[in-house]
Design a protein that fits this description.
Oligomer: single chain
CATH class of the largest domain: Alpha Beta
Number of strands: 5
Largest sheet: 5 strands, parallel
Number of domains: 2
Shape: globular
Helix content: 40-55%
CATH architecture of the largest domain: 3-Layer(aba) Sandwich
Structural class: alpha/beta
Distance between the termini: 29 Å
Order of helices and strands: HHHEHEHHEHEHEH
């Protein structure tokens, strides 16, 4: 640590030394920008939240469930980092041939795309504290089931999100999940609860 940075940390700690210890705990884990720290910790003190989570949102890409969760988390000022796959279906399907060249057979087109997409999904699932997997009603999301299995294999906590009609089909995956939800709001409520001080 450079001398200038150390001096800045001491100055900030002195400036905010009268704040509750919960605020000082957050100071240790974030940048030392004084304005941002003060704003951030004002929310922390008011709401009583201090846990920080990285969350991977896996599954269907044909509805706005990810946006609903993001908006819900922001409405509670929760300190979360959201990861997700590429949600543009055409981009995801074509990325292999777009970068690595055309293929005569669909198998090899999909093979290339799957491997490139796996670079992203595997890395971000490893980085996440837990994974939310959404199973939609319209398509059979084999990739979502694969992500759920990968998360479980990596020891990541899992939340599933699906309609009650899919309960029987997903009973094994639900059996490994720590929570089984039916709406994005239920996911938000769970994250809000586990983020309490």
């Amino acid at each position: 640590m450079g001398g200038c940075e150390a001096t800045q940390k001491i100055r900030v700690k002195e400036q905010f030394k009268e704040l509750p210890i919960i605020a000082l705990m957050v100071f240790e884990e974030h940048s030392w920008d004084q304005v941002n720290l003060f704003t951030y910790n004002a929310s922390i003190i008011t709401l009583g939240y201090f846990m920080t989570y990285s969350i991977y949102l896996s599954g269907e890409i044909h509805s706005n469930w990810r946006e609903q969760i993001q908006i819900g988390l922001e409405s509670h000022h929760l300190d979360t980092k959201i990861y997700s796959p590429v949600t543009d279906h055409e981009d995801s399907d074509n990325i292999g041939v777009d970068i690595l060249g055309a293929e005569d057979k669909p198998f090899w087109k999909d093979h290339k795309a799957a491997k490139i997409n796996a670079l992203r999904t595997t890395t971000l699932i490893k980085r996440a504290d837990f994974v939310v997997v959404r199973f939609g009603d319209k398509y059979r999301q084999w990739n979502a089931a694969f992500d759920a299995g990968l998360a479980i294999g990596l020891g990541k906590a899992l939340i599933t999100l699906h309609a009650p009609e899919l309960t029987h089909a997903l009973k094994e995956i639900d059996g490994a999940a720590l929570a089984v939800t039916e709406t994005p709001q239920q996911v938000v409520d769970i994250i809000k609860y586990i983020s309490q001080a």
